[in-house]
């Protein structure tokens, strides 16, 4: 059985007063964030607000210009970044696979974090069973033997989430997972994420989106970014409010929550 990442004693992830400066421009300024096991964060902001820049730091794909980032208790810049990445489930929606692997095979490549299966490493029966269990949780068992080129975008998205979960990461990072999905595919994806979070209470996640409608009901916290700065962060009840979302998007909107899900509409001028 594949072993899980070592359990850090503190938070899974901690960013303190982080700046990212490129070509003399602040893409992030003074952003702090602390993520504990079982927390599911939404990272919200308009185009260009800095969401992907922040997610790249959290996924140990880049370093801050100033400030510190600790992932699984280890400080970026002081540890082998490849070793750290092995414990993070980072879903890249532009997965560069060109061969006709089946859903099961794609999910199993998560063990080696490779695009193609490693010809020298054969998965154990336990690992295959784990892959099949994740495929079931994400609701794509029906397509388990289907080839990658024949999958819909929604099926691909769910396959990649199952793949990212193969090494049993502590933290799952999702960059706009619902983009381009039709209504049914989006709802299936969000239901899959809710189920995953129920089945794995220790897992934490960060999901980037522009749209509140794309947040699973199991979202617990949010960080709102505007022009690289944090407008608000904390539990959803305190952050996904009409006032703060309007400020984050620099546009008057009205936020509602019904059956655990959020919706945003332009506020009607009085
Ligand atoms: N390497 C870079 N060098 C210079 N500017 C960059 C670099 N990467 C991103 N930017 C700029 O930084 C800003 C933030 O980009 P980022 O991709 O983090 O925003 P985002 O919130 O994810 O946007 P979107 O919702 O459009 O994906 C943008 O103005 C972008 O053009």
TrEMBL record:
What's a single GO MF annotation on this record? ATP binding
Out of the domains of life, which is the source?
A: Bacteria
Please state every residue range assigned to the domain named ABC transporter: 13-252
Question: What's a Pfam family in this record?
Answer: ABC_tran
Record keywords, A-Z: ATP-binding, Nucleotide-binding
Listed name of the protein: ABC transporter ATP-binding protein
Species of origin: Streptomyces tateyamensis
Ranked from the top, the taxonomy reads: Bacteria, Bacillati, Actinomycetota, Actinomycetes, Kitasatosporales
């Amino acid at each position: 059985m594949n072993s899980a990442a070592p359990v850090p004693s503190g938070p899974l992830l901690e960013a303190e007063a982080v700046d990212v400066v490129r070509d003399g421009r602040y893409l992030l300024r003074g952003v702090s964030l602390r993520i504990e096991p079982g927390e599911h964060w939404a990272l919200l902001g308009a185009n260009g607000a800095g969401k992907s820049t922040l997610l790249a730091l959290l996924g140990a794909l880049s370093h801050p210009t100033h400030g510190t980032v600790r992932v699984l208790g280890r400080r970026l810049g002081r540890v082998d970044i490849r070793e750290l990445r092995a414990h993070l489930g980072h879903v890249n929606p532009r997965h560069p696979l060109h061969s006709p692997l089946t859903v099961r095979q794609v999910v199993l490549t998560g063990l080696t974090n490779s695009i193609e299966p490693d010809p020298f490493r054969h998965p154990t029966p336990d690992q295959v069973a784990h892959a099949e269990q994740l495929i079931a949780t994400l609701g794509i068992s029906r397509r388990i033997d289907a080839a990658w080129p024949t999958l819909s975008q929604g099926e691909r998205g769910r396959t990649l989430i199952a793949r990212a979960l193969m090494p049993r990461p502590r933290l799952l990072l999702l960059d706009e997972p619902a983009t381009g999905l039709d209504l049914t595919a989006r709802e299936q994806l969000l239901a899959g994420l809710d189920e995953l979070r129920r089945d794995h209470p220790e897992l934490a996640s960060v999901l980037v989106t522009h749209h509140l409608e794309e947040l699973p009901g199991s979202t617990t916290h949010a960080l709102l970014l505007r022009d690289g700065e944090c407008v608000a962060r904390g539990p959803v009840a305190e952050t996904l409010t009409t006032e703060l979302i309007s400020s984050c998007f620099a546009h008057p909107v009205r936020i509602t929550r019904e059956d655990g899900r959020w919706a945003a509409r332009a506020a009607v001028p009085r």
